Amino acid sequence: MHILVTNDDGITAPGLLALAQGMARFGEVSVLAPDHDWSGGGHVKTLRRPLRVRRVRLADGAYALTSDGAPSDCVALGLMGLLPRKVDLIVSGINPAANLGHDVTYSGTVTAVMEGIIWGTPGIALSLDGGDLDASELDYTPAVAVAAQVVESFMRHGLPKGVFLNVNVPNEPLHRIRGICQTRQGLRVYRDRLDRRTDPRGRDYYWIAGDRPTGIPKEGTDIGALAEGYASVTPLKLDLTAYEALDTMKDWEWEPQPALWANGHRDTAIAY
Ligand code: MN
């Protein structure tokens, strides 16, 4: 099996090294990760500038590739031909903070794996619930063990087409982790606050600040599992269609409305 290891914290992140080392037992590992921190950078496709790739060495001496693109760019590069061999699985992480509920579209860790789905390659995103601790202070061993178990299950069972996994692990020693739960997305509670400041030239600028998000620890959800001391595995897909709304919206007016579609109306609108 050929595993592509990436992350959103950058090529020097300790969680990337731990994950790359932990994946070596499953086969060939290629590391291709961003050259700086893209946390919160979301699903990105860089189109307006070239992407550069450099060969570097990780802290353990292993060769790796780093790019100035986003995590999702790194995955696209890897799958579109930069890596000579076909990739069988993408693993992304280990992020030093949890990615739960609505975090998934912000998270570079998760959106790297989303990019894999677009290219037909399955993937697993891995995050450690490190809270406010610095990435260098965390012990990634328990998360690597959970990652290994999830990868082994993936190798045995495979995943349905288009499905990827979002894995979150409590920041606890392995013997205190109660197990692994299958979950659905919970509800994050964001506590962002807009900080308005003035620069030295007297112009206003804005900073999205505030406290770390909390969440509703409902049973059966990713947030609930972590709150109970379990690692959480949520199967996700890119189809965001609200199927239940298709039914409730079927009585909306979908026929062309002459008063709104009339040429005169459109001409006025674009006569700027
Ligand atoms: Mn990150």
Describe the structure.
The strands form two sheets. This protein has a nine-stranded mixed β-sheet with strand order 3-4-2-1-5-6-7-11-8, sandwiched between helices. It has a two-stranded antiparallel ribbon with strand order 9-10. Helix 1 packs across helix 4 and helix 2 packs parallel to helix 3 (108-118). The radius of gyration is 21 Å and the shape is globular. Helices cover 27% and strands 29% of the residues. The model has no long low-confidence stretch (mean pLDDT 96). It has eight helices and eleven strands. It has helices at 14-23, 71-82, 108-118, 141-157, 222-227, 243-248, 258-261, 263-270; strands at residues 2-6, 28-34, 53-57, 63-67, 89-95, 123-129, 163-170, 180-182, 187-198, 204-216, 231-237. Strand 9 and strand 10 (204-216) form a beta hairpin. It is α/β, with parallel strands linked by helices. It binds manganese (II) ion. Manganese (II) ion (MN) binds at residues 8-9, 39, 95, 108-109.
Give the key terms.
single chain, 272 residues, alpha/beta, 8 helices, binds manganese (II) ion
Span of the ends, CA to CA = 58 Å
Please give the share of residues in helix.
25-40%
Strand content: 25-35%
Uncertain runs are: none
What is the string of helix and strand elements?
EHEEEHEHEHEEEEHEHHH
The rounded Rg comes to: 21 Å
Please describe the biggest sheet, giving its number of strands, its sense, and whether it closes into a barrel: 9 strands, mixed
Structural class: alpha/beta
User: So how many helices?
Assistant: 8
The average pLDDT is 96
Q: Which ligands are bound?
A: manganese (II) ion
Strands of the widest sheet, in order across it, are 3-4-2-1-5-6-7-11-8
User: Globular, elongated, flat, extended or rod-shaped: what is the shape?
Assistant: globular
- How many DSSP-defined strands? 11
